[in-house]
Amino acid sequence: MQASRNNSYGFTLIELVFVIIIVAILSIVALPKLINLDRDAHIAQLNSIAASISAQNQLTYSKSAIAHIEHLEGCSYACGNHPNWDIRQGEYFIDASATRLYVSMGYPLPPLTSSATVNNNYRTVFGLPSTEFDFTSVTRHLSATAIVPIKWSEKLNDIKNGIFECHVEYSSPTSIRNYSVKVFTKDC
């Protein structure tokens, strides 16, 4: 007589339930950390853009000072024969990244101020392609220009009205205030 052997392969039901519970607990603990990593990545991207704009602004001001246009604002089409005056745009410019970067009081004009050329040249010099970033005006912050990652393009009206904040704002200087670069991350 031969004894029957019970050769079983695999896991018991209790082992499977135990593994599922452990995996569920780990996912509950890990998911918020992963979500925070995404938020941190967005904030880091915005901080990087702001730092790049500030660095380029300092370089732009230096080039404007060399060209003696650091205190000049755009004027009518009769600004004389200054070599850094673009009669077609009605603005002063400096050469940056083989592109005309239009300036006022030594700092870059923000995109959305006067023409598509100013907008496109700003994008080129600052490395903000239209496939990755949108611009909108923020009226509650003295008509600053918001630089918005394309991910948030459906929120442009909310950004414009101050409801949604996950962007960089740039304001060029005027006779009463300096330029500013601010990062808004409340809703990232």
UniProtKB/TrEMBL annotation:
Keyword set, alphabetical order: Membrane, Transmembrane, Transmembrane helix
Gene3D superfamilies: Glycoprotein, Type 4 Pilin
Transmembrane spans: 12-31
Recorded superkingdom: Bacteria
Protein name as catalogued: Type II secretion system GspH family protein
